[in-house]
Design goal:
With 183 residues, the protein is α/β, with parallel strands linked by helices. Helix content is 41%, strand content 17%. Strand 4, helix 3 (109-117) and strand 5 (124-127) form a beta-alpha-beta unit. The longest helix is centred in the first third of the chain and has 24 residues, at 2-25.
Length: 183
């Protein structure tokens, strides 16, 4: 009987692993868990990027209105794909967008990129050491967080935003948060 179990053990291990991988293949790899969902934005205070004469960007700036926080970098290919759509949102005044310029090797690269491509951000903070990005739990750029009037994270988008994602997911959430906040 022991010899029989010895021959069946590899089959059992294979079936368990096959089941595990089969379930894993049904998961969307773009949907990472949002550890901040329903929690206040982590406290941060970032200086402005070079060439911008504003105050930078801090967690306290997120109080009082529904807004987006977009983590970007001039080095990020997906950010370049997303950027024209963020410019569209800025043009129509859809929602305030704040940026965190993340991990620029050259501190002038981010500001030069925004000057060339257009600046969709109301406020931009410089995060060369990833302090704010780590606090947000960022795994890559771009990532965008939807924050309500009370400074609570309500949604996290991993990857570039586009019209489909905006219209089907983020805009309805923005509208709901604005309505709920007004009542």
């Amino acid at each position: 009987m022991n010899k029989r179990l010895l021959f069946l053990l590899p089959l059992v291990v294979f079936l368990v692993l096959a089941g595990y991988f089969a379930v894993g293949l049904t998961k969307d790899p773009r949907k990472l868990p949002n550890m901040l969902a329903g929690k206040p934005v982590p406290e941060f205070k970032l200086p402005p990027i070079k060439g911008r004469d504003d105050k930078g960007f801090a967690s306290t700036d997120l109080l009082g209105q529904v807004s987006l926080v977009n983590i970007f970098g001039s080095w990020c290919v997906a950010c370049q794909i997303e950027h024209p759509f963020l410019m569209e949102l800025k043009t129509i005044g859809a929602v305030p967008i704040h940026g965190i310029d993340w991990r620029e090797e050259n501190r002038e690269a981010g500001p030069a990129w925004l000057k060339k491509k257009g600046d969709p951000y109301d406020l931009v903070g410089d995060d060369p050491r990833s302090k704010a990005a780590i606090a947000f739990g960022v795994t890559g750029a771009p990532e965008t967080f939807l924050v309500d009037q009370k400074g609570v994270v309500r949604y996290k988008l991993v990857g570039p935003m586009n019209a489909k994602i905006w219209n089907e997911t983020i805009k309805p959430l923005v509208d709901k948060l604005r309505k709920d906040g007004a009542s």
